[in-house]
Amino acid sequence: MMNNLLRNSLLLITTAFLLAACGGDEPGQIDASDLDKNSPDGAFLLTMHTLADSDLKSAIQNSLSEEKYTELVSEFESQQKQPMDEQQKMQFNQALQMINQDNAEEQIYNMIAPQLTQIRAFMPMMLMGAKDQISQQLGGDQNSLAPRCNSNSEVVDGTVTWIMDNDILQEDKVKNSVAELVKTGQGLNLSSADDLQKLDFNQALDMGGEVLTGFKNALNAHGIDVNGILRSAEVSDVNISGDKATLIASFEVFGKTACSQVHMAKRDGFWVINPQP
């Protein structure tokens, strides 16, 4: 169960960041007080809202019965008692040592600066070369899923244009992004991997929320507003068949409306996003 939950949680976060990579500039759309988590569309929008708030605990509680939530806590506590892999522990401690230094921002930027210079030089050519290929892989020629939706090719074109116009890897933007990541890492107050092993379930979720917030702030330094994208979510064409449902979800990215069909499943009385329909 723990593995399934982690996989689904990672899917949600990954989906949000993939959308974020397209950029967004629309104001918030979601009012959590109006959402019904007992419906597939309400459950989906509530998930987007809790991710925008970096509230991982609510995101999990809204997807599990009280009994399953208690089981999850027990499984986490059992896993925390298992020793961490020595190589992972060493790598984690090395990362902590670097990020907790007074000059961490400068060190990290100096490490990545040579690669950034190369990437910036070739980015326009790479983007133009990849644009058509990406559009084809996404089915760019297909009809839009709903009247409000732009085609995938239009969304890809908008993404490429925005990236080229905004120079997201400009030095000051990268330095500000690194500063946000360092600030987040230092704010966790971890001195070693052993500190991580001592966290209880609620502390781990709170720390996960802090990391998610820091990552979103780092993306925002490049002009990418993850929360704006998540809060722009709209849902239509909800079709329910027993304990399964489909819906069309849309997000505002670069002034375009990106849409995708989402599969939902009812488990233990809760509607959840189903990555494997």
Automatic annotation (TrEMBL):
Top-rank taxon, per record: Bacteria
Signal peptide: 1-20
Keywords, alphabetical: Signal
Name listed for the protein in its UniProt record: Uncharacterized protein
Source organism of the structure: Marinicella pacifica
